[in-house]
Design brief:
The structure is a single chain. Helix content is 66%, strand content 0%. It has 109 residues and is mainly α.
Length: 109
């Protein structure tokens, strides 16, 4: 992974060996880890949301009346909004945890 290039504990020289005394080294390492964690969470969310959207599209085929369509559409958009707000809240927590502590949770494989 990208953050391993900046991890001083990673095997091999990596970039850590080239820049051990650079003052911004730790900030750069934290930033890279934050970016990686955010990207991973966002992609997992998009995958789940895509599956829900495809399922909703398939369920529209069975709709028989305008009232059914209206109810379905309202429920769909409420669910989508809830999912996006929940994900944005989770991403905000990741950002705030990195900003507040200057470090991250241990990377998960």
């Amino acid at each position: 992974m990208l953050h391993e290039m900046f991890d001083p504990k990673a095997p091999g020289p990596g970039l850590a060996a080239l820049m051990p005394n650079w003052p911004g080294f730790q900030a750069l390492a934290v930033s890279l880890r934050l970016n990686e964690e955010i990207a991973r969470n966002w992609m997992e969310f998009l995958q789940k949301r895509y599956l829900k959207d495809v399922d909703a599209l398939q369920r529209t085929i069975a709709i028989k009346s305008p009232n059914e369509l209206t109810s379905f559409a309202i429920a769909f958009w409420q669910d989508a909004a809830k999912d996006y707000f929940s994900e944005l809240s989770a991403l905000q927590k990741i950002l705030l945890s990195g900003a507040a502590t200057g470090s991250l949770r241990a990377p998960t494989a």
